[in-house]
Design goal:
Blueprint lengths: L5 E8 L1 E3 L3 E8 L2 E3 L3 E2 L6 H13 L4 E9 L10 E9 L13 E6 H5 L9 H9 L2
Parallel strand pairs: 1-7
Antiparallel strand pairs: 1-5, 2-3, 3-4, 3-8, 6-7
Length: 133
């Protein structure tokens, strides 16, 4: 494990209210998680999160608000990654998976909280932190 943390923008926790409260979850070949990505040279963390949201889902985010910073050194088995999590407003468009995502869709919050969506890393903790704030 590297001694230096790697900073990534965990992107967004996006909730919408249709009939039930729903959360946007990304499906990749090996995991389910929140839309996120790594900061590119010259980007701020917020710029990164907005870019990743559009690349992974086709959704355009506005009015981002900082929710939390997750930095536990063991939260990712690959290396020490500090994630910055934002909430964001999007229009009513449906997400379209892009970039390295196989699927992007909204899941009922209760289904996620019941553990029926096997999320990667500490993404369930991110959702619980948001839900309990």
């Amino acid at each position: 494990m590297s001694d230096k943390p790697v900073l990534t923008s965990c992107g967004f926790l996006i909730a919408r209210q249709q009939f039930d409260l729903e959360l946007l979850i990304m499906e990749h070949a090996d995991r389910l998680d929140l839309p996120k990505g790594h900061v590119e040279p010259g980007e701020t963390q917020m710029q990164c999160a907005l870019r990743e949201l559009e690349e992974e889902t086709g959704l355009i985010g506005s009015n981002p608000e900082l929710l939390m910073v997750m930095g536990e050194p063991t939260r990712d088995p690959r290396k020490h990654i500090v994630s910055i999590v934002y909430s964001v407003t999007t229009d009513d468009s449906e997400p379209n998976a892009g970039d390295d995502a196989a699927d992007a869709r909204f899941w009922p919050l209760q289904t996620v909280l019941d553990g029926k969506v096997p999320l990667a890393g500490d993404h369930m903790q991110i959702i619980k932190n948001w839900f309990n704030r």
